[in-house]
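Observation: inputs received (chain + zinc ion).
Thought: call the complex predictor directly.
Action: predict_structure
Action Input:
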Amino acid sequence: MSGPLVLGIETSCDETGVGIVRGRTLLFDAIASSVEEHARFGGVVPEVASRAHLEAMVPTVERACREAGVRLADVDAVSVTAGPGLAGALLVGVASAKALALALGVPLYGVNHLAAHVAVDVVEHGPLPEPTMGLLVSGGHSNLLLVPDVTDDIRSLGATIDDAAGEAFDKVARVLGLPFPGGPHIDRVARDGDQVAIDFPRGLTSGRDLQRHRFDYSFSGLKTAVARWVQAREATGQPVPVADVAASFQEAVVDVLTRKAVLACAEHGVGDLLIGGGVAANSRLRALAQERCDAAGIRLRVPRPGLCTDNGAMVAALGAQMVMKGRPESRLDLPADSSQPVEQVRA
Ligand code: KG4
Ligand code: ZN
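Observation:
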C-alpha cells in the first residue's frame, strides 16, 4: 500500500463524512448522518444540518483515525468539499479542514463535491480511464459530464433544467406516502410493481427537445404526471397501486438517464461510463445501465451503494489524486462556495 495518506471531510448536506485513503486504497469511511432529524420536515433543514455537523465533526474525525489505524500526525494532506452544497453546512467542513491542515502543517485541498462523486470510484475499480463519461445523479444534481481528468478538467454536457433525479424520487415518494428520503423506499416498493403498468412521460426525449436539450434532463413534468395520476385514482375511490406507480415512475427516470448517457458516450467516442451520486444506489438504474452499456459495448463502473451516497471517502479519494497529480494546494482563506460550478474542480 503506497501513496499519500489523505483525510477527506464532507459536509455539503446532511452527512458528516470523514474518509481516510492511502493513495487509491480506502482505509476507513466514517459517516454520521442527521437525516432522521430532517425526516419530519420532509427535506433537509439547513440550520439543523449545520448544527449536527458541528456536533459530529470531532467524534467522526476521531473514529475515522481509530478505525483506519492511523494517527492524525501521519496525515499528509487534508481535503474538503468546498462546494456546491448548503452554505452553512459547507462552512463547518471547510473551517474544520483548515484548522486540521494548519495544526498538522499539511496542505489543504478544497474540492468540488460533484467531482468527488466521480473520483471515489478509484478506491473500488482502480484509476479512471481518461476520458470517462460521468452520469451524476443525486438529490441536488443530475449532470452528464465529460471527464478528461477528474483532478483538473470536467466538462458539463448537460444537466437537469428543473428537478434533480433524487429530488423527483423524494417528491414522488411523498405523494405515495413513503418516508423521506424517498429514493430507497421507491426502489424497494418498485420490486413488487409492474414497470410498464403506467406510461409516464420521458422528459426532453423527442423532436425539438432532443435537439435543443440533447444531454439535459427534466423531471418536473414527470413528477406532476405522477401526482395527477394518483389524484385521479383517489377520486375514483379505488386504492392507489403504490408498487406499480413506483415501478413505472422509476422506469421513466432510469430510462431517460441511461438513454442519454449511452448517447453521450457514443457521440463523444467515450468507452467508459461511470455513474455516481445517491441515485446511483438505485437497483433498477444499475441493472438497466448494465444492460444498455453491454449492448453498446461501453464499460460501466458504479461504486457500491455506500460510496454513491454522500461520504468522506470520495473527498479523500479526490484529494489523494490531486496530491498524486501534483495539483496546487488551496490557500487557507479558501471560501465555501454553495453554488460552485461543476467545471471548477478545485476551489
Ligand atoms: O448524493 P446524495 O447522498 O446527496 C446529495 O448530494 O444530494 O443523494 C441523495 C439522493 C436522495 O434524493 C435519495 O432519495 C437518493 O439519493 N437515493 C436514491 C436511492 N438511494 C438514495 N434514489 C433512488 N434509489 C435509491 N436506491
Ligand atoms: Zn452528493
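Thought: report the result.
Final Answer: The mean pLDDT is 96. The chain has 13 helices and ten strands.
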